[in-house]
Amino acid sequence: MLDIATKQEDNTIVVLLNGKLDVNAAAEADKRFTQIGQDAESVVIDCADLTYISSAGLRAFQRLRQTLKKKDTPLILRHVRPEVMDVLDVTGLAARVTIEK
User: Fold this and answer.
1) Which residues contact 62 (CB under 8 A, 6 or more apart)?
2) What's the rounded Cα separation, in Å, for the pair 68 and 48?
3) Closest Cα partner for 2 from 12, 16, 14, 13?
4) Residue 61 has what pLDDT?
């Protein structure tokens, strides 16, 4: 199960993920990310409470990254747990987004 919350910090939308971004949660995440990507000047995804990410979850991140890239809007992943970071590294997504501690 994945909970998705958002908050506004100046011109940045912060997305707070809590739980597992697995195949069951990916469709809803993708839908929410699409809305966020259309409206945001800057996006930070706070992964402090993201405990797992599947390939479907990675696709949702990638789609958001592509949407934002068209607008020259940065995608920042913050507070990424080691187990999630390992997946981002192996798939190469870590090299295509900004990672903050």
Assistant:
1) 93
2) 22
3) 16
4) 95
Nearest partner of 42 among 64, 19, 17, judged by Cα = 64
Over 48-100, what HEC string results? EEEEEECHHHHHHHHHHHHHHHHCCCCEEEECCCHHHHHHHHHHCHHHCCEEE
| pLDDT band per the 50, 70, 90 thresholds, residue 101 | confident
Q: Work out the mean pLDDT of the chain and round it to a whole number.
A: 94
Is residue 22 classed as helix, strand or coil in its secondary structure? Answer: coil
On whether the CB atoms of residues 22 and 52 are closer than 8 A, the answer is yes
Q: Is 26 helix (H, G, I), strand (E, B) or coil?
A: helix
pLDDT tens-digit readout, 38-63 = 888 899 999 999 999 999 999 999 99
Residue among 9, 18, 4 at smallest CA distance from 64: 4
